[in-house]
């Protein structure tokens, strides 16, 4: 291939049309130099990269080992604290340990606590026992014995005799101390069942340094630690060991390993990595520290183990680079010739079609460009003129189509749509209208330019959302209103309704969250046939009128408004209460009553738009009735030339109407509060006078008083409670009892007679009310006042 390409070059040099081929070959070779240069750079860095990766990998695995061992040590620490802080153990440590009673307590402690703690010990903790210096006793799960018997029959160390074990392990003070791994005989008598353990020591009590009375010993299974070592050892062919705070090797994968003083000085920080000559071999030492046990986890990895891999990778990289350079150069020449062939054929075709046209340009591309530009110039002018008018023509056609003003003859419609470059996927359509309610979050000033931006954004976002699954077109209706025609994909017929709702929610969310523009969207039902597009538009407009109920950032479907109820709830009783509360200056109850009317009509029931407006008209009519009957000055109340009805019906939503209604009523109620104090005092006195005058009447009560003053019982009850700090019924009862006490002092009436005289229907009710207020029955009260009268007579005679 290379020979054929090189043989063609002299021929191309003789012709002026070979410049593009030369430029392609040079360009491809230059492009080839970029990856080659990068490859050379990476080749020089491969050793550092591989060495760094090996070190990081080793450090990461060592850190994983530390985390695994530390988690086990945390479990062991929890078990140790549970045993050490057991209050029963503190009692055993303080006793002499010799009496039968104390022996029983020790056995009881083993049974109730140590046996239970045994279940907490995992495979990491082989066993544990407690030494009590008083009596030289050993307590472990299921066992109580003396120290010598324990050592000679149960657990003994291969490297320690009894005295050494007793001195080094059981005596003296130990705080979170660990003994290096050692062989432990689990059957000392037969020297059988050897196992490697790391011994954890803690003197008891924990916070006693000078007067220790015992020790807690936990045996750690070294085999579990070795299993954790194996993963790192196999991965990196390294030696791993654990060093404690006294530079003792607690456990190691190599029993012969020892820690030099020079290396111990370098294990000072929390973690690190350094080069070190270990046993005459250049090695990489990585370590990390554990705060749990003050250990250092150390890994020793010979350098030559991974440098062999590094050298191998370097050779492979160099070989790949050379092969890539050779193959890339050949491919560059071949691809240049292949890409030049279409250009050459195009130039030959142009020359043959225009034999009298002599090329004056320097290369093939310029020749092709000049030839095509001349041919397309006129067509471009015509197409530009058409394109300038196409958006306007298409928008006008869609606007008329959506409104139903287009001739629906199918042949005529198809031809118009082809001319407008409009295509439909199916005969399923829906129309939804988008109203931009608030653009303050997008633009501080609502200029015409900003509104143009808003319409552009809504149109493009809405169209993109529709065309993700279906087909859609947008039409600007007004400055702040856009209509969308959605044509559904027939393959997704079962999902049309769900897709329509999802598209509307997505458009609403994007405009609100990303552009801070509040919208109201009204959608029609889905219809079939282009003849139903105009009907769908009318449905969307009908749903749009209900934005007064739903407010901003709402989606209204035409199907939702068909279930509206043809009535509203504003009974005469509510109007009477509203008038009474306003006239009495009770602003809180006025606001609560208006809120209740709003909740009952708009939140708990569906209402037609027309009835909703009627409800607010009736409420504002009540407002005007109050102002007319009380001769209130509306200009002084609301301001000059302020029409409350116009203000109310200029609101965009029913929530705004509700707020405006409450504002008007609050102003009117406040105007009555100035004279409310004197009026309330007079009304309270009038009610009390009526009670004093009619307390003998059995019909005296809340209803009788309310009818007398032309008010509702609820209002009279609430007013009396608020003005006198007592219930009206209690006040009537007190007045009647006081009148009965007066009669008791004057003559000897029976209880039945007294009940009739003070307005009670029978003596049982009278006696119960009298005892409730006075604490005694009428008979006992009569005796007490008679006795008091006799005493006064005696004193008078004396």
Describe this structure in words.
It is a single chain. With 798 residues, this protein is α+β, with helices and mostly antiparallel strands. It is 60% helix and 15% strand. It has 28 helices and 18 strands. A seven-stranded antiparallel beta sheet has the order 3-2-1-7-6-5-4, sandwiched between helices. The longest helix has 66 residues, at 19-84. Residues 1-17 have low confidence and may be disordered.
Strand content: 15-25%
| Helix fraction bin | 55-70%
Q: Stretches where pLDDT falls below 50 for ≥5 residues?
A: 1-17
Give me the number of helical elements. Answer: 28
Secondary structure topology:
Layout: H1 2-14, H2 19-84, H3 87-94, H4 100-118, E1 125-132, E2 137-140, E3 143-146, H5 147-153, E4 156-157, H6 162-170, E5 177-187, E6 192-204, E7 214-221, H7 222-236, E8 239-243, E9 249-252, H8 261-266, E10 271-278, E11 281-290, E12 295-302, H9 303-353, H10 364-403, H11 410-419, E13 428-438, H12 448-467, E14 471-478, E15 481-487, H13 496-513, E16 518-523, E17 527-528, H14 533-544, H15 547-550, E18 554-557, H16 572-583, H17 587-603, H18 609-629, H19 634-638, H20 644-649, H21 654-673, H22 676-694, H23 702-709, H24 713-724, H25 728-746, H26 751-757, H27 763-774, H28 778-797
Parallel strand pairs: 16-18
Antiparallel strand pairs: 1-2, 1-7, 2-3, 4-5, 5-6, 6-7, 8-9, 8-12, 10-11, 11-12, 13-15, 13-16, 13-17, 14-15
Helix pairs in contact: 2-7, 2-9, 9-10, 12-13, 16-17, 16-18, 17-21, 18-21, 22-24, 23-24, 26-27
